Amino acid sequence: MSLISQWVDYTLEATGMDAVDALRAFFLLAAATTFSISIPTSLRSRFLAYGPRSTSASTSTSSAPPSAQNFSTESKGFLDYLATLQVPHSYFTHFYVVSVLSSVFWVAQLLSRGAVFQAIASRVSEDHQRHSMSLTQLVICCVLLAVQGSRRLWECFIFAKSSSSQMGFAHWFLGLGFYLAAGIAIWIEGSGTLLTKKLTIAHLQMTNAPSLRTFFFIPLFLVASGLQHDSHHYLFSLKKYTLPEHPMFRGVVCPHYGAECIVYLSLALLAAPQGEWVNKTMLSCLVFVAVNLGLTARNTKRWYAQKFGKDSVQDWWLMIPYLY
């Protein structure tokens, strides 16, 4: 216990933040870093593009005029070296293995008031503890996040196709960090309640009438989850990479990305502490998801334009019709 506490204390002291603010900062900093990398073509093509998109991106970079590649030879050599640090694209499965294991771990910690929970929850400021989620909210949100991770893990297995595609090591490492952080983010704004009231198995029995918030946002979560699953199933059914013709893809490049953003939006609203309209930690989590998927959707649209012609997707939305 003392070793864990010391590590948490050292980390938070170095940042000058409490646990909640440090978690929010992680998501926002990760989003800002990813967005910054997307601006220079030389960085975007090396570190953000993966799978089939990486081929076209690297080709366009190598064929760009010298004025667009104004890095020194040493800088380009170093960037090229970093770009070679890759892992198989199939490692995406690791994200959801971590997500599911994280959900199981934190449920066990919350029920037992374990050492890791105590080390983090006791480092939440009194201000954040005063505005806390209820036990009902905590149970609902933790279950829904576990459902999301479990469904995506299941899809990784049943929709798996053999591929030689790669993704950057940094992308993989950041993804693992995101899902570990999301497992904490889903409950940390309920730490004030958890420190004063013991969560038990009995709280898993939902006997209370649903609030207006749960009545609206749980169905929203389920609909978005279903739409994402249908999108993944359709993409898996394609014999080869072709321009999608499914109704959900009509005029939208990546509707499954938009659905995932709605999943995290519904969690951010469901997990709003007392007196708040949104859970700011989960909202920060959503910012990272939206930035990461938005940039990937933009690369996908660029790839479609190169492969099927610019006019084929010129007027298409990236993720959500009439919004983005």
TrEMBL record:
Topology within the bilayer: Multi-pass membrane protein
Keyword entries, A-Z: Endoplasmic reticulum, Membrane, NADP, Oxidoreductase, Transmembrane, Transmembrane helix
Functional pathway: Protein modification; protein glycosylation
Catalytically driven reaction(s): a di-trans,poly-cis-dolichal + NADP(+) = a di-trans,poly-cis-polyprenal + NADPH + H(+)
A GO BP entry: polyprenol catabolic process
GO cellular component, one term: endoplasmic reticulum membrane
EC code(s) of this entry: 1.3.1.94
Listed Pfam families: Steroid_dh
Residues passing through the membrane, by range: 22-43, 91-111, 131-148, 169-188, 208-227, 248-271
Recorded GO MF terms: 3-oxo-5-alpha-steroid 4-dehydrogenase activity; polyprenal reductase activity; polyprenol reductase activity
Domain 3-oxo-5-alpha-steroid 4-dehydrogenase C-terminal: 190-324
Broad class of enzyme this protein falls into: oxidoreductase
Domain of life: Eukaryota
Compartments where located: Endomembrane system; Endoplasmic reticulum membrane
Functional summary from the UniProt entry: Plays a key role in early steps of protein N-linked glycosylation by being involved in the conversion of polyprenol into dolichol. Acts as a polyprenal reductase that mediates the reduction of polyprenal into dolichal in a NADP-dependent mechanism. Dolichols are required for the synthesis of dolichol-linked monosaccharides and the oligosaccharide precursor used for N-glycosylation.
Entry-linked PANTHER family: DFG10 PROTEIN (PTHR14624), POLYPRENOL REDUCTASE (PTHR14624:SF0)
Family membership noted in the UniProt record: Belongs to the steroid 5-alpha reductase family. Polyprenal reductase subfamily.
Name this polypeptide is given: Polyprenal reductase
Protein source organism: Penicillium coprophilum
